[in-house]
Amino acid sequence: MMKLSADSQFHRQLFLFNGLLPALLILIDAARGRLGVNPTEFVTRTTGVLTLVFLILTLMVTPLRKLCGWNWLLKQRRLLGLYAFFYGLGHLLTYLAYDRDWQLQTVAGDVYKRPFIAIGMFSFLLMVPLAVTSTNAMIKKLGGQRWAQLHRLTYYIAIGGVLHYWAIVKSDVTWPRFFAVLLALLLGYRAVAGMKKARSMTPRAS
Amino acid sequence: MRDSPPIPSSEITPEETFRNRRFFMKSAIWAGSTLATAGLYRAFSPHAEVRNTGAVIATVAESGVQTSLAADEKVNSFADIAGYNNFYEFSTDKSAVADKARHFITDPWSVQVGGLVKKPSTFDLVELHKFESVERIYRFRCVEGWSMVIPWVGFPLSQLLKKVEPLSAATHVAFESYHDIKQMPDSIYAGIDLPYVEGLRLDEAMHPLTLLATGLYGKTLPNQNGAPVRLVVPWKYGFKSIKSVVKITLMDREPPTTWSLANPGEYGFYSNVNPTVDHPRWSQAHERRIGEMGARPTLMFNGYAEQVAHLYAGMDLKEDF
Q1: What is the 3-state secondary structure (H, E, C) of chain A?
Q2: Taking CB atoms and an 8 Å cutoff, what residues of chain A touch B14?
Q3: Interface membership of B80 toward A (CB under 8 Å)
Q4: Using a CB-CB distance cutoff of 8 angstroms, which residues of chain A are in contact with residue B278?
Q5: What is the reported pLDDT for B10?
Q6: Quick check: B285 contacting A, CB < 8 Å?
Q7: Minimal Cα–Cα distance from A20 to chain B, Å?
């Protein structure tokens, strides 16, 4: 019998369920009329924060593999990324439904007028090609290296997401700062790892 | 594995036990992760339980003050009004304020009134409740884009100001909220300077619609709504209606106000409800009435233009926002 850390079917089920659970709870609370006094604000904020949570989780996979040797996480990374897209899409839909009242012709003007909307929208649009190219067939078609290059867009998406969150908060930046610090650590890790690699590859002067 | 010494059969875990152990571990991981995810969601989701436990305030009927609502406007429930509060001294999470303000001490209380007045005075709770109370049902429009209809109980601020007799040099009124880090430990996260300060022009302060509220829904104010006494200026964005007032000062110049100090480009001194002047980060043309799904158009001066527009005659409200 295989080790638990190699049981990727178990991991898949676990991640799939826990990723979906917040969405299920929102739906259950909505059905029971328990989304609080201002449900639209709650759903908009929660889907936005969940998008950031899954972006951060996606970016945690590589450091955790390298630092803790949890290589089994790699197989679940695509799911985490797709959940970021899923909640991002939910966030966009709540914006269109509640902030824009489905007046889609007003979206362009809103993006133009409000920089934080522009940042959020741009970050979401960057997620679309990543979601589209997340299938095995697309990875094969693009080739591993080009695929990996494309999916480094995740860094910019996460930066955009944190800026978008920071810009909407009125004065208490506790939570935007929390995400900013996490993201800085995760990107900093990559920068340092990249520099070390570059140095070790430079030929020594003779 | 092939090269390692053979393990005596007595030390091999029977398959049955191994399966049981694995089943137990998986169940524990399932339960633990589900509880953690659901618990995190619950920790951040609103669940304020509020009850109207205040003391009854006797009110008198009044005539001559027009505060009527449109036919399709309903008064918000107590649960809405007392469960969703911007009171940064306690929390920046509107759904968490009710709980965090639960033990706020509002008795004894005193409001110090001074500055450019003939008779500087201090009003305690007994003196505040000597003013004849009336009920006023007002629209309340938050700068964030949501609104409610609230049945306030209180008395016109003008009555209190007349008692202290403002000097002719007085042109403005400054207000200050209670602030105590011991009672309000989460105020360190507010991101704004405290104590909270607000201000009005004297004619705005003397306007019959401007209220010092001591209650809502017929009873004394819940802590989270600014007990024991707060300002209510129904034609201005909600943040002008300063809560838990401890100090009122008559001045000969415009007093500083908390939000315009924090962000002068976004919040002005006047902050009149105005659908034609957008907040830099969101439109003010519409509002979401709590309890309704669709958006409502925001009314000029929050629907009180007939009563207050004359105060701003000749002013450019885009300049003086």
Answers
A1: CCCHHHCHHHHHHHHHHHHHHHHHHHHHHHHCCCCCCCHHHHHHHHHHHHHHHHHHHHHHHHHHHHHHCCHHHHHHHHHHHHHHHHHHHHHHHHHHHHHCCCCHHHHHHHHHHCHHHHHHHHHHHHHHHHHHCCCHHHHHHHCHHHHHHHHCHHHHHHHHHHHHHHHHCCCCCHHHHHHHHHHHHHHHHHHHHHHHHHHHHCCCCC
A2: none
A3: yes
A4: 113
A5: 66
A6: no
A7: 10
Task: Count up the domains in chain B and report the number.
Answer: 2
CATH number at residue B229: 3.90.420.10
In a domain, B3, yes or no: no
Place of tokens 């940064």: B88
Question: Could you report the predicted ipTM of this complex, rounded to two decimals?
Answer: 0.88
**Shortest Cα–Cα distance, A18 to chain B (Å):** 6
pTM for the full predicted model: 0.89
Residues B132 and B274 in one domain: yes
**Quick check: A170 and B92 CB within 8 A?**
yes
**Contact yes or no for A114 and B190 at CB 8 A:** no
Which tens digits make up the pLDDT trace of A4-16?
888 889 999 999 9
